[in-house]
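Tip: read the tokens left to right.
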């Protein structure tokens, strides 16, 4: 049984993660944290997640948390960096589902992997990670004969754009096509842009309403096109992937792993 700590338990993903642990027969919630000074500190985490009283009180730091094997973090970049540093100092494994990291922050995550086991993925969904594999296959077959566009849509509260998943899709495509994403990415278009360069990878972003998460990669040729799409209708799909990653990570040696490793897709 994997003992799990959920950080950011009062957030949208935090509550769903607690529910997902409750539904999983191989994981157990033993700690849940909220922000320092939160009025929810001391409350029952099960009642917050609407899963029934579970005797696990919300605390305002990992220092105050009970024993656990793995931290699951779907918070924000600054908070995740603090939790990562704590895990390194206390030799705890961590699953990171947060997005929007800078290159410097990503380098810190890689450095942490020399000391502790980390699963770091822009998207914990099993379906999305299967799409990464399909995108690699499609890009290698189609090569430079098609125009490639990544279209993503999320709820109005999402703070980073393009989404971490869209950027990961772009990286998969660029690697398969032998390109550098930093050089070939085009983020939106406006005005007189001229004819499209076939060796670019375009990104379009939508932020609206309560869209959980939708991603489509378009491979367009003259006369035909292929679309690979993933649509999430519930945050539970990401939460279940996070729990699966936590179960897989327990007892692993220090390294930075991805969901591709968790799902044996590499």
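Filled-in amino acids:
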């Amino acid at each position: 049984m994997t003992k799990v700590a959920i950080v950011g338990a009062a957030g949208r993903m935090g509550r769903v993660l607690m529910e997902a642990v409750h539904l999983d027969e191989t994981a157990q919630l033993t700690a849940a944290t909220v922000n320092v000074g939160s009025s929810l500190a001391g409350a029952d985490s099960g009642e917050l997640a609407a899963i029934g009283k579970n005797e696990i009180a919300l605390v305002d730091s990992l220092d105050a948390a009970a024993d656990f094997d793995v931290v699951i973090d779907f918070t924000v970049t600054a908070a995740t960096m603090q939790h990562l540093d704590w895990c390194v100092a206390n030799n705890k494994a961590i699953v990171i589902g947060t997005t929007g990291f800078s290159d410097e922050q990503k380098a810190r995550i890689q450095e942490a992997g020399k000391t502790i086991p980390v699963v770091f993925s822009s998207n914990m969904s099993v379906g999305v990670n299967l799409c990464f594999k399909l995108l690699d296959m499609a890009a290698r077959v189609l090569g430079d004969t098609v125009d490639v566009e990544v279209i993503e849509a999320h709820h109005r509260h999402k703070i980073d754009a393009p989404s971490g998943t869209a950027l990961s899709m772009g990286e998969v495509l660029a690697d398969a096509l032998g390109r550098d994403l930093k050089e070939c990415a085009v983020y939106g278009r406006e005005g007189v842009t001229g004819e499209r360069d076939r060796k670019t990878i375009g990104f379009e972003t939508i932020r609206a309403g309560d869209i959980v998460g939708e991603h489509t990669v378009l491979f367009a040729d003259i006369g035909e096109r292929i679309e690979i799409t993933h649509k999430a209708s519930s945050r539970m799909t990401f939460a279940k992937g996070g729990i699966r990653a936590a179960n897989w990570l327990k007892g692993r040696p220090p390294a930075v792993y991805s969901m591709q490793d968790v799902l044996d897709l590499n």
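Residues 2 and 239 are 15 Å apart (CA to CA). The two ends are 26 Å apart (CA to CA).
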